Amino acid sequence: MTIVRICAAFLAPFLTGLPSAASPQEAVTQQSEQIVVTGSRLGLSAEQSVQELLIYDRTRIEQSGQSTVADFLATIPQVSLNSVESTYIATSVRLRGAVEGSTLILINGHRINPVTGGAAPFGFFDLGMIPISLIDRVEVLPNGSSAVYGGDALSGVINIVLRSDFSGVEGMAGYKLANHTNERVAYAGARWKGDSASASMMLTYDGRNPLPGRDRAITASPDYRRFGGPNLGTPFFGTPSTIYSLSGNLPGLNSSFAAVPHGSPGVGLTPSSFAATAGTANTGSYTFYQDALAQSDRGALLVNGSYRIANDMELFTEVLATKYEDGIKNTPPFLQFAQVPPSNPFNPFGSTVRAAGVVRGAEGLAKLVFREEFFRPLVGARGNLGTWKWEVTLSDSRDVGSFAIYGLADTAALNAALASPDRSTALNPFIDGPMGSPALLSSIYSNTYYSAFTGDARIVNGFMRGPVLQLPAGPLDAVAGAEFERNTLDRGFGAGQNAAALFTELRAPLYSVPTANAARREVLALQAAARDDRYTNFGSKTTWQAGLEFRPIDSALLRATHATAFKPPTLYDLYAPTTTNPIAVTDPRLNNQAVVVQAIQGGSTSLSPTTGDTSTVGFAWSPSEVRNLNLSLTWWTLHIADSIKLPSPQYIIDNESLYPGRVVRGPATPGQVGQIVSVDGSYVNYGTMHESGIDLGADWMLRTPIGQFTPALAATYMTKFDGISAPGGPNVNRLSRANNDGIFAPRWKGSASTGWNPGHGVQLSVTGRYIGRYTDYTAPRTIGDLWYLDSALEVGLEPALVRPKGSLGQLKLLVTGTNLANRLPPYSTYFRGYDPYNYDIVGRTVFFRLQMRS
Questions:
Q1: Is the pTM of this model over 0.85?
Q2: Backbone angles phi, psi at 784, to 5 degrees
């Protein structure tokens, strides 16, 4: 049984079109031969891999029903947590629950920007730059691999292989709908191929309507008592407002506060108008006003070309250009105990009072707009030198964008409107309705925060591979190469760094046995890699990896690997501008005295790389007694040290001795402690994480008189996940225990599926995705233990209607459904009211697509 069939068991979570498995590889075409290699540049065949590897082909991606790369990756067991689009807008992938930015993203096997400008503060490449319609397959290497690919491959590698091998003309139009939101998708492409040249082009579009928070029960109200939680409503987001006295009771009332009555006209009021609401407050939550999903418009262009100069040389190019704009309704303008003097003509109390609540009529002014463009041209050449093969590429990955926050208050205009004696220019917080005219509200909430950014990565890579010598068991193959990368970031500051690397790989067959056809079968083989990366701003880092594979019989594979890896500090980590803001803290050295200090945050040029190492031991078996059955098991462990984080100012103060020089105190008399003046909370290396677990897989292709069935199981069972997140801090158990820093993972994540192909162009699949029970953010409450049910139906209309091939343009109908049981999130003590890392707030979706090819 080949490695492809054996390793399919690792992932095969889905039915028809199980992911093929081989080494994750760069797509390299040598004349008519295409070699797939991620995790190695050795040009290995499918039978020669020591790496655990997951490959998901286009069929598997389409049948998932997901419409973004991040959403698709979140369905596989090795990706422990969802990427939270509603928090960052940009999206990433987190293998084994590790932090954002710990997974290296490749396009067609080549490095790109390690960090895009919009996601610079979070340290990752935005997967939203790559439309899912352009993807041919996704290759997941869930092990550190810096020895092959350099920095950022800390917990693994995701290689996204873009489409270039289709023929003729293709097109698709689709519509995805869910309750209160929908999405429109389309693509069109064409490819030409001659004797020595080929070219292809594809255009895509994806447009999505927003999902307002008010349209989901869990975000529509802060009163979670119906979900088993508390009422977390706050008067800051109440409608209408709540009025408070400066001291004592409100004039004419027996309480210091009173809610503005529902239906209040806002004029002609007296204190007695509030008699029925004295001692009560109108409360609400910002989640009602915010969008749970942004409105989004995304387009992309992909161009590929190649030209064979001779039998031993080929030129090639690929260009990816994407552009998107996301708009999201933001936290609405609100009054936070704003003072309303007696000059305000609507104030019925005749003295200064305070008001809290949403500024009605101004809700639509608060929005965030995020724009980004990504442009990545790559040119290269490849060929042969005798028995050696070589490749050289040059790429320039650039992203340009901005984000703007609209509807911010002009403080002077707000105070003037609260104090204005003119009804036409005075803000009215005593009304159950708009607090002013649209012109007035627009003049008050007229400020905009705007930030623009540009990121760039220019990369030159070259390598050669071939046989070094003939060993008794087979050829010793080697790779030698070099890479140079120039990264820049402009985000209110300008920074850059150069990185140069030398790398090598070896594969040595140690023992082989003859076969019946006079060939030899490898029984034992060793594979190793090493790389040295040198950076202009923090020095060098050397990494290595090694693996051993043992095949006692054709149908069984035993393998073990160990790899070291690292993630360099990003340009934002190093050079982010310093900001200073006053905050209130308590000082444990002065009897927990409350004091306002200057909190400093920003980049730090003293940072070191985050380091990691991964080990795996596993087997794959396809028993000859049961045809087409594949079983696999892999034990893995991951250790990460020296993570880069922003420590909280209060934590630094509480552990002052562990942060020498970061707490600055004023002068004091001998024997006394000075009062804190400032605290430096800039980026720092701290924290370690230890993880281990087991990946399980089983798939079977069963042919019956009524068609072909493909049942499959895939799961990750974590046995350990703990770590220290701060110097001197406790070792925190993060296994099945949600943590506010977002670093945790459920013990179980898996899927069970079956596919049925009865012929006649029809395929049907059903998949259940499982997330295990875990402790909520506040113990001992538990959540999780849920199944999501998905299904897909594919109908080739020509065979289904018994029409000649090509008569309908090979038209295919694909209908997919996700979360068919409409499992919506339960209450969680996470600040949003539900846990976005594991729960789907969109609910049931149905996705209709028509595809054609000619």
A1: yes
A2: 90, -150
Q: Identify the residue whose tokens are 């179980």.
A: 748
Secondary structure of the chain: what % helix, strand, coil (to 5)? 10, 50, 40
Furthest-apart CA atoms within the chain: distance in Å: 104
Reply yes or no on whether the pLDDT at 11 is more than 60.
no
Task: Tell me how crowded residue 699 is: count the other CB atoms within 10 A of its CB.
Answer: 27
d(C-alpha 378, C-alpha 458), whole Å = 10
Place of tokens 């001779």: 310
* pLDDT one-digit tens code per residue, 555-587: 999 999 999 999 999 999 999 999 999 998 999
Q: How far apart are CA 33 and CA 295, in angstroms?
A: 43
**Side chain identity, residue 241:** S
Strands (E), 87-245: 103-107, 110-111, 135-141, 156-162, 168-178, 181-193, 197-208, 211-212, 242-245
Which of 579, 597, 601, 582 is closest to 666 using CA atoms? 597
Closest CA to 256 of 353, 351, 345, 334: 353
Cβ–Cβ under 8 Å, residues 740 and 777: yes
**Helix locations, 567-680, DSSP H:** 571-575, 649-654
Residue 644's nearest CA partner among 725, 743, 739 is 725
**Side-by-side strand order, sheet with 579-587:** 579-587, 593-601, 676-680, 663-665
Q: Is 492 exposed, middle or buried (0-12, 13-18, 19+ CB in 10 A)?
A: exposed
Nearest to 431 by CA among 191, 210, 240: 240
One-letter amino acid of 716:
T
Sort residue 810 into left (φ over 0), alpha (ψ -120 to 50) or beta: left
User: What is the three-class DSSP state of 589?
Assistant: helix
DSSP tag of 352: -
Tell the residue number behind the tokens 């869930």, with chain if given: 142
Instruction: Give the number of other CB atoms < 10 A from CB of residue 207.
Output: 14
Q: Where in the chain is the domain with CATH 2.40.170.20?
A: 3-210+294-328+371-402+451-569+607-646+682-853
Distance, CA of 755 to CA of 60 (rounded, Å)? 11
Q: How far apart are CA 388 and CA 2, in angstroms?
A: 26
Helix (H) or strand (E) holding 376: strand 367-385
Instruction: Tally DSSP H helices, then E strands, for the chain.
Output: 11, 46
Q: Are 762 and 16 in contact (CB under 8 A)?
A: no
Tell me the one-letter amino acid at 670. P
Provide the residue type at 477 as one letter.
D
Contact call for residues 845 and 817 (beta carbons, < 8 A): yes
Q: What's phi and psi for 678, nearest 5 deg?
A: -150, 160
Paired strand residues for 427: none
pLDDT band at 16 (very low <50, low <70, confident <90, very high): very low
The fold of 3-210+294-328+371-402+451-569+607-646+682-853 is: Maltoporin; Chain A (2.40.170)
pLDDT digits 0-9 by tens, 59-78: 999 999 999 999 999 999 99
In the chain, the N- to C-terminal Cα span, in Å, equals 36
DSSP one-letter string for 656-676: GGGSTTSEEE----TTS-PPE
Is residue 526 scored above 50 in pLDDT?
yes
The answer to whether the CB of 684 falls within 8 A of the CB of 607 is: yes
Whether the CB-CB separation of 754 and 765 falls below 8 Å is answered with yes
**Main-chain phi, psi angles of 212, to 5 degrees:** -65, 145
H-assigned helices in 494-614: 571-575
Residues in the chain: 854
The DSSP code for 134 is G
| Closest CA relative to residue 678, chosen from 655, 657, 660, 662 | 662
pLDDT of residue 45: 54
Inform me whether the pLDDT recorded for 813 exceeds 80: yes
Q: Whose CA is closest to 346, among 408, 436, 414?
A: 436
Locate 13 and state its tokens.
């979570």
**CB contact at 8 A, 174 and 149:** no
